[in-house]
Amino acid sequence: VSLWLKEVKYQRENHSIWKQMLSSSTMIVKNKQIMILLAAGFIFWAFGESTHLLKSIFFAFKEIPIHYFGYVFAFTYGFSAIGHYFSHYVSERFGDTNTLFGASIIDSILVIASTLTFGLASAILIVLPSITFGIRNPVMSHMLNQEVPSSKRATVLSIDNLTRQFGKVIFAPFLGWLADLWTINTAFMIAGVCLFAGAFITLGLREKP
Questions:
Q1: Among 164, 162, 189, 160, which residue's Cα sits nearest to residue 54?
Q2: Contact 160, 31 (CB under 8 A)
Q3: Phi/psi-derived region of residue 125, left when phi > 0, alpha when psi is between -120 and 50, beta in every other case
Q4: Is 106 exposed, middle or buried (0-12, 13-18, 19+ CB in 10 A)?
Q5: pLDDT tens-digit series, residues 147-191
Q6: Which residue numbers in the chain have pLDDT < 50?
Q7: How many angstroms from the chain centroid is the CA of residue 124?
């Protein structure tokens, strides 16, 4: 199928990869909009994706039978796909910044609520944020693409992805340590509270027509 894809025309830089990385990094540091998007993405992946990685332990703590795990994870990715599908409609209706803020607040509330319930109710509440993840992700990518010329887009998007992965690499073990220190339930509650920070960071974003 990929043989039928057509390459999009874009501006090309004629200098080395090191100069490309330096000029792209300089542009990121000077652009407040990009810095906010990177900081928010770092937090969302640090505490959102990290909880996703630890869901099996959370389900075991909530005494959810293991034969339900597969169904729960299937719904997780299904809800994410639904969120991606409706992302454009939601952002057109409420605006990019409001969509990011609203989705992130709902995400935080659902994670915290999942720690206050038991059994399948906990599983349902911890799966529902997949919808807000699906809504939020395309909006963040769209806003980032608006800020970056095509000549630097691949490098900036790579830095954005690296920043998000760093968040997960750093804080997944940290949440595991908190779970070992207290319980996985407490670790998830702390993660949910920390996700509020990412939501309020997005209020600093400005929308472009």
A1: 189
A2: no
A3: alpha
A4: middle
A5: 998 888 888 999 999 999 999 999 999 999 999 999 999 999 999
A6: none
A7: 19
